[in-house]
Specification:
Helix content is 41%, strand content 12%. With 605 residues, the chain is of the alpha/beta class. The chain has a single domain, classed as Cytosolic phospholipase A2 catalytic domain (3-Layer(aba) Sandwich). The strands form 3 sheets. Strands 3, 6, 7, 8, 9, 10, 11, 12 and 13 form a 9-stranded mixed sheet that branches. The longest helix has 21 residues. The termini are far apart.
Length: 605
Amino acid sequence: MIVIILSLLYSGAATSGSHVTNTTCGVQNLDACVIKVPEAQGWSGGACLASMAEAGWVRSPVINHIVGAILNIEWNKENKRFPLITGTNSGGSMFGTRYFTLREHRNAVNWNYPCYLLHNPYSSVCFFHNKFGTVGRECDAEIFNVVIAATQTAYKNVMNSYGGPSGVVATYCFVYHPFISDLPITAGERTWWAFIRRYMEFSTQFGVNGNWAVAHTLVSPQAAQSNIYNYGLNSWLSRSVNAYRGKAASTLQNITVAWVVAASANTQSGFALFPFALAGKSWDGLAAASDGSAKLFSMILSYVTTKKLILAHSIMDVNDFIPGACNGGCPLLDGGFTDNGPITPILAGSLRMAPVNRPTWVVSVGAASNMENVKYLMGTGPFDIYNMGAINYCPVEVQICEMMDKVKKLQVDTMSKQDTTEYYAIQNAFGVYRPEVKALSPYCGDPLNYDMFEKTCEADAVCDMWASVVPSRINDIAFTPDVYVVVFVMVYLHATPVSSRFVRIYMPQDMWDIQYYEHMDDWFPNFDAVAPQKGGTAFTKIAGNAFMDYMTYLAMRMSSYLSGTKSNAKSIKDGEQLACHYQDYRAISGMTSSSDDFFRAQAAR
């Protein structure tokens, strides 16, 4: 037997400190691969774009036990190891429902074998014709498009009579039928709490139940401490339905898991409400005061329209599920309208746990624009709401959109002062800046932490950052006596040197001959979420197999790095004092010679 030995040597982020760990693990010593530290995992939204990414990532432990030990995902009769909190949003929530269900109903076709691990000509046939496995088959374009068409035909009249083609019934139908209807969930397991009791298992590693935080956006002026008539963007809050949250257990006992997931993936209500939400945000001008009469008219129109949409069931309302839960009505939207990570719900759920089980290793798997989401949650940038917070929507090819964005930035730098002022005035008026929802801060205040984090992601597609959690009522993140520090790890689905090497080495020549993929080493895996060339919302077999295989490859390729970040998380959990290079820099900077001392020293020579 060939013994696979993996030497895990890691030095922590240069700007945060270092923790070197020497660990040897292999197929004959899996226990050495397991770093026991509570962890959380985030599966972000993006419909099938998210589902396929997460399916490929979670598949890696199935085909490689060492990766399973590092990611702490093991599922058998003796051992059940998994993240203590799994936060999901939109497409991630739909994938989570399938994954949690099917991992219990084990069969030989839950996963397909990665095509890139086969030799030609088998790999070429596999990429073009292999099925996605039961976990991911809902996003096969042929199946998905037929189910959507059948759903529209069968429920057209019901949809039109209850909210319209993008109303509440439509939202439910377009979540339940493509993503949930084929799962082996019995009638007695369909309610939220019955599903949780059946499928959210007990961790044999930590002795607690796993928690599932299904993220959504709650539009609540009262919870946002705003005026009760203001349904604007400042009242949009990142919240979640949690598998375990004490007193909240009884309030959802009659709600099905499909409705909980539908609220998490409710983009339709967000699109309907968004044009009227701009009225309630700040209209601060850069060079002049805003027009008070226009603001007043817009606020009235926004309030009246929101109430009408709620009454017409054109947007989802929390009172539809829990009568009287919100005075006056509180719309429920896709979690991507506030935090697609979903990082905020994960942090909020972590701080409700006992300190001994509180995760210090937080991993987010999501779309490329999640980097913008991180900036927003650190209070250093606007929320990218025009891309749904993280999903790649581009009317042309993604690389062309990126090029246009770079050209725009260059053009702004060359504009006159007057034009530049007007440009930033428009950006300020339509941009969503909310420093009050800041949830993460660089560890020990070092600004280089994020710089290293971003550039590492751009190079390796996986990056980590030590961060302090910022408590706040608006984020529902509880205050604690001590500072809550985590190692935040992000899987970055953007074109990187790692992805370019992957496609050049493993993609068959037949795929390169297709016009859509002829320059895929420049953009893969940054698919447009609805590109018709990849299957629309879903994926053709060649696109889906390539995407899933890359995610599996990435988990294996970066396993040593991931293990190193986990070692740092264990150091935090063990109470070790992490090095702060920023403090070192400030101490050394304070010893710098004054100009007088400098010249005296020169003269003395």
